[in-house]
Design brief:
alpha/beta, 2 domains, five-stranded parallel β-sheet, Rossmann fold
C-alpha cells in the first residue's frame, strides 16, 4: 500500500483498551484526512497467529518513512509488540533498508526511562502537545522529503483522491449493495464464473426451452446482464431468439455492446426499481418491436437489489402470460468443507457483517419471493459443484470465481469513508484470510462442495 507512517502503541492492558489506543486512532484519522497512508495495527490479524501478524507488520516497516511511538507509560515502550515494532524499524534505519526516522509521543517520564535506541529522536509530551500538532509535524517532515518536481503536495493528492471517490460513491447510491460489476478485474471474474456455472444454469434453461418449443420466436430479457456474456451463451441454441440485456451501469452496458457479436442481442441501461419502470421498459420494448418477453433471466442479480419482491413484481408487467423467469442465486448455507480448520466459516461469518453486503441467503427465499409476487409452478434446480476430481488450476479458478470478490465491499466502504479504521482493518483481515484460503484451495487435502440454486417459475 506504500505506507508513509507507522503508528506503534500498546493496544490493551488487563483486557481493556489503553488510552494510547484512542490517541493512536485520533492520529490515524487526522493523518488519513490529510492524505497520509498510515499503518494502524490491525490486532484482529492475531486470530491467524503471531506469525501472520508479524508478517503484516514487517511488510509495513520495510516501507514507511516515519514511525510514531505512542506511550503514556514507561512499561508500554517495552511491551511485546510495541518494542518489536520500534526495535525492528530502528534496525531497518541502521541497515539502510529505509531512509526513515522515529518520533516519540510520550507521557511523563525521564529521558533515562526511554530505551537507548529511541531516546534521542524527536520527542513530544502527550500532556502538553495535541494530536493535531503531532500530525502537522509529521506532514511537514514528510513534505521536506518529497521532491517537488516528482510528487504533488500531500494535501493536493487528497483532494484529487476525494474527488474521484466521491463520483463513485454518488453513482453507487442507486443500488442496495456495494457490488459494482465495473470494479477492477470483475469482467474477467464474471467471464470465468459464466463459463464455470453453465452446467448449473442449463437444466432450468432447457426446461423452459421445452415448455416454449411451440413458439416461433422467443424474446428474452436478461436482467442485470453485466457484460452480456452469460445471457448470450445460455440462449445461443434458441432458434429465432431476441435478447435484450439491461443493467443499471452505463459503462458496463457500453462494454456489453462492444463485446456483442450477435445481431439479435441488444443492451440498454435500466434501473429495475425505477419509479417509472413500466414506462421505461416499454420504451425499450417498442425500440425492438417486442410486445412481451417470453423469458426473464437473471444470474446473481436479486441478491443485490434493494427490494427483490418489488423487482419481481415489476418484471411481471413485461412478461407474457405464458412466460417464465429463470434466476440463479447464491445461498451461503449450502457449502461444505473439509481440511481448512474452519477458515471458510470464519470468512463467511465475517463477510456477512461487511458494509453494503448483499443477501447471501436469498437462494432459499426464492420460492417464497416468487409465489408472493404471483408466479406459478415454481421449480428449484440444484447443481452440486465440488473440488473432487479437480486439478490445481481448476481448484484455483473455483476459488477466484466464488471468493476473490469479497474484498470489494471493504474497498467500497473505504471509498465512502476513507478515514474509517474499522473498514481498513476489516479489509486487511479479509485480504489476509482470502490469501490463506487460496492456498488451502490449491491443496489436494482440502475438499469443498456447494449447491448452486436456479429458480424457475411461470407467470400464470
Amino acid at each position: 500500500m506504500n505506507y508513509q507512517v507507522f503508528i506503534s502503541f500498546k493496544n490493551t492492558e488487563n483486557n481493556e483498551f489503553t488510552n494510547d489506543k484512542f490517541l493512536s486512532e485520533r492520529l490515524y484519522k487526522y493523518l488519513t484526512e490529510k492524505g497520509i497512508n498510515t499503518f494502524y495495527s490491525n490486532m484482529s490479524l492475531l486470530e491467524f497467529g503471531e506469525a501472520a501478524y508479524k508478517e503484516v507488520i514487517d511488510d509495513a516497516l520495510d516501507e514507511v518513512t516515519l514511525m510514531v511511538v505512542i506511550a503514556s507509560k514507561q512499561e508500554y515502550l517495552t511491551s511485546k509488540w510495541c518494542k518489536y515494532e520500534w526495535h525492528t524499524y530502528q534496525q531497518n534505519i541502521l541497515t539502510n533498508i529505509v531512509d526513515g526516522s522515529i518520533i516519540t509521543y510520550l507521557g511523563e517520564m525521564q529521558l533515562s526511562d526511554v530505551p537507548t535506541a529511541i531516546r534521542h529522536y524527536q520527542s513530544f509530551n502527550i500532556n502538553s502537545t495535541s494530536v493535531e500538532t503531532i500530525g502537522d509535524f509529521i506532514i511537514n517532515a514528510l513534505n521536506k522529503k518529497l521532491n517537488a518536481t516528482q510528487a504533488p503536495k500531500i494535501e493536493q493528492t487528497l483532494q484529487n483522491n476525494t474527488l474521484n471517490n466521491s463520483n463513485n460513491i454518488e453513482f453507487k447510491k442507486k443500488t442496495a449493495s456495494y457490488y459494482d460489476s465495473s470494479f477492477a478485474g470483475e469482467y474477467k471474474r464474471l467471464k470465468l464464473q459464466g463459463e464455470s456455472l453453465r452446467p448449473c444454469d442449463m437444466p432450468g434453461v432447457n426446461y423452459v426451452k421445452e415448455q416454449l418449443n411451440y413458439k416461433d420466436k422467443i424474446y428474452i430479457l436478461d436482467v442485470g446482464c453485466g457484460y452480456g456474456v452469460v445471457g448470450r451463451d445460455r440462449f445461443k441454441d434458441f432458434p429465432n431468439k431476441v435478447i435484450v440485456g439491461v443493467d443499471i451501469l452505463e459503462p458496463v452496458i457500453n462494454k456489453a455492446r462492444e463485446l456483442n457479436d450477435d445481431p439479435n442481442a441488444h443492451y440498454e441501461c435500466l434501473d429495475l426499481l425505477s419509479e417509472n419502470f413500466d414506462e421505461e421498459i416499454e420504451i425499450i420494448m417498442d425500440k425492438y418491436g417486442i410486445k412481451k418477453f417470453d423469458i426473464c433471466f437473471g444470474a446473481y442479480i436479486l441478491q443485490h437489489v434493494k427490494d427483490p419482491i418489488k423487482t419481481l413484481r415489476n418484471l411481471r408487467c413485461c412478461l407474457s402470460d405464458d412466460g417464465y423467469v429463470i434466476f440463479r442465486q447464491s445461498d451461503e448455507g449450502t457449502y461444505l468443507t473439509y481440511g481448512d480448520d474452519g477458515l471458510l466459516k470464519k470468512i463467511c461469518e465475517r463477510y456477512l457483517k461487511a458494509p453494503g453486503i448483499d443477501d447471501r441467503f436469498i437462494g432459499r427465499k426464492m420460492p417464497y419471493f416468487l409465489e408472493t409476487t404471483g408466479y406459478k409452478d415454481v421449480k428449484m434446480f440444484g447443481t452440486f459443484i465440488t473440488t473432487s476430481g479437480m486439478d490445481y488450476d481448476e481448484r484455483i479458478n473455483l476459488y477466484k470465481m466464488r471468493f476473490s470478490l469479497r474484498t470489494m465491499y471493504y474497498k467500497k466502504a473505504l471509498e465512502k469513508d476513507p478515514y474509517s479504521i474499522e473498514a481498513k482493518n476489516e479489509l486487511e483481515w479479509m485480504t489476509y484470510a482470502l490469501d490463506k484460503l487460496q492456498e488451502v484451495f490449491g491443496s489436494p487435502a482440502f475438499w469443498y462442495g456447494e449447491t448452486m440454486l436456479v429458480s424457475v417459475a411461470k407467470k400464470k
